[in-house]
């Protein structure tokens, strides 16, 4: 009787065990997320803040003080090379300065009074009035013809934009400052200071993109034109940093890129290239600093050593050890060789 019962229940027990086996195996597997190694295009960039300057800027200085009869331009005006900028009343200028010099030769007291009168009449300080007479006197001693250094007209030496005007019609204007400054809008340069740690790989011809506020949404193309031969230190509070001054030429400058603007300079020291990569969270490292990953093969975890390369913003370059078809486990924790794994989700990267 007992034998019959054993023979009767044995198949039933075996059947139950067989039916429960997949569930037991499933429960012993570790759930993981995986990703396949992927290729993407990347270009290394370095960003700095720079200042815009006119590459070609002409300052028009006069040898002596003058009284303009008419000033035809003001800051912001566009001019062509040879354009008339101002006319000078040479007769009145010479007469006024000659009178000043002859009177000034009398005594120091009358000289001071003369400066006060001319300063008041022509909206100058007494020091500026004194400089006017000194500059004329020096010029007169060097040249017998007074009109030789008093131009009747002032012309623009280049195509560009007038950035400074220190002349006023009918007003005695000193020669201390440039009478007029004209800057080329087609030839701009940008000055930046590159950190010592970033200068490797930067050379004349390195391309860059220029962008910033006030540029109507435009971006400009530029190239490095000059790297200064000596480094310098820039101080911020008690901290110092070693930098190298660098100049870039803007290739497509226009009137929106104004001299004095602060802009963002994005340097591109390397050409765009493709990288075979994995996310950082897939890479492991043992006590000997050997890097490896866990891959899924036949439903089990298998360890593979890898050689990594460049560290990119969101991934690391894989030089060897994997193929694009490998299923790599992300963020592997407590994984051991040969362990059963259950893939819950496959990640995809563009």
Oligomer: single chain
- Summarize model confidence as the mean pLDDT: 83
Report strand order across the widest sheet. 3-11-15-13-12-16
* Strand composition percent: 35-45%
> Total helix count?
4
Helix content bin: 10-25%
| Biggest β-sheet strands, sense, barrel | 6 strands, antiparallel, barrel
Contiguous runs where pLDDT drops below 50 for at least 5 residues: 16-26, 102-107, 139-148
Derived structural class: alpha+beta
Number of domains: 3
The N- to C-terminal Cα distance equals 70 Å
Alpha carbon gyration radius: 40 Å
Number of strands: 24
Shape: rod-shaped
What string, H for helix and E for strand, traces the elements in order? HEEEEEEEHHHEEEEEEEEEEEEEEEEE
Question: SSE layout and pairings?
Answer:
Layout lengths: L1 H27 L1 E6 L2 E5 L3 E9 L2 E4 L7 E4 L6 E2 L4 E5 L1 H15 L3 H14 L4 H17 L10 E3 L4 E6 L14 E4 L4 E8 L11 E5 L8 E8 L4 E5 L2 E12 L11 E6 L5 E6 L5 E2 L5 E7 L2 E6 L1 E5 L4 E5 L7 E2 L11 E7 L3
Parallel strand pairs: 1-24
Antiparallel strand pairs: 1-23, 2-17, 3-11, 3-16, 4-10, 5-7, 6-9, 7-8, 9-10, 11-15, 12-13, 12-16, 13-15, 14-15, 17-22, 18-19, 19-20, 21-22
Helix pairs in contact: 2-4, 3-4
Question: Overview of this structure, please?
Answer:
By secondary structure, the chain is of the alpha+beta class. It folds into 3 domains: 27-41 and 274-347, Beta Barrel (conserved putative lor/sdh protein from methanococcus maripaludis s2 fold), CATH 2.40.420.20; 46-54 and 187-271, Beta Barrel (Elongation Factor Tu (Ef-tu), domain 3); 62-177, no CATH class. The chain contains 4 helices and 24 strands. The strands form 6 sheets. The chain has a 6-stranded antiparallel beta barrel with strand order 3-11-15-13-12-16. A 4-stranded antiparallel β-sheet has the order 2-17-22-21, with no helix packed on it. Strands 4-10-9-6 form a 4-stranded antiparallel β-sheet, with no helix packed on it. A hairpin with a 2-residue loop joins strand 19 (291-297) and strand 20 (300-305). The longest helix is centred in the first third of the chain and has 27 residues, at 2-28. The chain is rod-shaped, with a radius of gyration of 40 Å. Residues 16-26, 102-107 and 139-148 have low confidence and may be disordered.
């Amino acid at each position: 009787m007992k034998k019959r019962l054993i023979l009767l229940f044995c198949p039933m027990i075996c059947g139950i065990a067989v039916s429960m086996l997949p569930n037991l195996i499933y429960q012993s597997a570790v759930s993981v997320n995986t990703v396949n190694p992927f290729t993407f295009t990347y270009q290394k960039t370095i960003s700095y803040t720079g200042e815009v300057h006119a590459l070609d800027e002409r300052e028009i200085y006069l040898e002596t003080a003058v009284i303009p009869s008419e000033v035809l331009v003001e800051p912001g005006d566009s001019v062509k090379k040879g354009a008339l900028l101002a006319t000078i009343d040479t007769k009145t200028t010479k007469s006024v300065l000659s009178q000043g010099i002859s009177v000034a030769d009398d005594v120091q007291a009358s000289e001071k009074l003369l400066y006060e009168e001319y300063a008041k009449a022509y909206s100058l300080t007494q020091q500026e009035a004194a400089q006017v007479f000194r500059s004329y006197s020096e010029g007169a001693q060097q040249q017998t013809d007074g009109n030789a250094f008093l131009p009747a007209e002032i012309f623009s030496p280049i195509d560009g934009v007038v950035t400074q005007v220190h002349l006023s019609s009918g007003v005695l204007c000193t020669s201390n400052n440039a009478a007029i400054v004209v800057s080329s809008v087609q030839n701009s340069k940008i000055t930046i200071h590159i950190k010592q740690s970033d200068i490797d790989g930067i050379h004349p011809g390195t391309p860059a993109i220029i962008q910033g506020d006030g540029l109507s949404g435009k971006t400009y193309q530029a190239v490095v034109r000059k790297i200064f031969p000596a480094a310098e230190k820039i101080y911020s509070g008690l901290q110092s940093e070693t930098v190298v001054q660098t100049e870039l030429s803007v290739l497509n400058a226009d009137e929106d890129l104004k001299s004095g603007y602060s802009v963002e300079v994005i340097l591109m020291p390397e050409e765009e290239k493709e990288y075979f990569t994995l996310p950082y969270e897939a890479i492991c490292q043992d006590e000997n600093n050997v890097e490896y990953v866990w891959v899924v093969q036949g439903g089990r975890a298998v360890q593979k050593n890898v050689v990594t390369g460049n560290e990119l913003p969101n991934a690391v370059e894989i030089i060897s050890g994997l193929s694009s078809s490998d299923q790599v486990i992300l963020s592997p924790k407590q994984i051991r060789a040969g362990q059963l794994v259950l893939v819950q989700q496959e990640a995809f990267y563009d």
